[in-house]
Design goal:
Dna Topoisomerase Vi A Subunit, Chain: A, domain 2, 326 residues, DNA primase DNAg catalytic core, N-terminal domain, alpha+beta
Amino acid sequence: MLDIVSYLPPKRKQASSGWISFNAVCCTHNGESLDRRGRGGILLTGEHDWSYHCFNCGYKTGFTFGKPLGPKTKKLLEWLGVSKKDIDHLRIESLRHRSITDIVDSRTPISANIKFNQIELPNGARPLKTSDSKFVKYIKSRGLDIDSYDYRITPEEKGRNKNRIIIPYTQDNKTVGYTSRFLDDRVPKYLNEQQEGYLFGLDFQQNDWKYVIVTEGIFDAISINGVAVMHNQINDKQAQQLKQLKHYQKEIVVVPDNDKAGLKLIDDAVENEFSVSFPEWDEEIKDVNDAVIKYGKIVTLLKIIKGIRSSSIKIKLARKKMENNL
């Protein structure tokens, strides 16, 4: 297994709390100046497990033996000088630690049949930090915290771009697009750099989850670790990827927004033989993220599961009732 400490810069010190401090290797990759004050820290939390936190640029990640190697962890290892061969070995050993069934599942990523081009994030995009109060306030207003995703901002840019939160799209540890959510009062509120057929949130999905919850909006998906189509219809390439998951005993559950646009999403679900959920939540709740803000993540998920309809007849009846209530 990988000895993470052996890859740390030689000038380091360990506190009584267990944190090992050293000059962070992430800052220059995230739009900050070179760290010379030992602001990077690693805490060993198990025989093979560890957590990383940079107190300069705010970069956070970690590793848990038996779980997939995340894109942020892979980047940190590369910055520390770990070879691609050793990173691949760590990934394989971590997966091998799981059951044989889980290993087979994990070898079948949903994106296997559709590849997307790697792109660069906008100039100056850096990780969101706790000191970025305006942006942190917005994330919290969505019922989330800044560790819920790898949010980026470009506060040094001009015009609207200095007032946006960037949500990167990933596939196979690559950045393949992004959403900009502007915090001013102008429209459009969102601008997407999205390749045809991309489904946001496939990286969230776990092998032992029974349901893949499909939403319209990106914050809906982040709120419940779901998948977002990022408009009010499921295009052919997105449907193809979701159908691939059905072969692995996963139920595809579409949760439409409670508006006229949501009716189109229901129609697409019926056409593709997906399930649809009609959760029983209060009238003012318009989408999944609204529900998470009011009820919390666990209750929202329970309501979604309870509201699942799999029969096309039952879906159409529930759709008619929803349409009449709009």
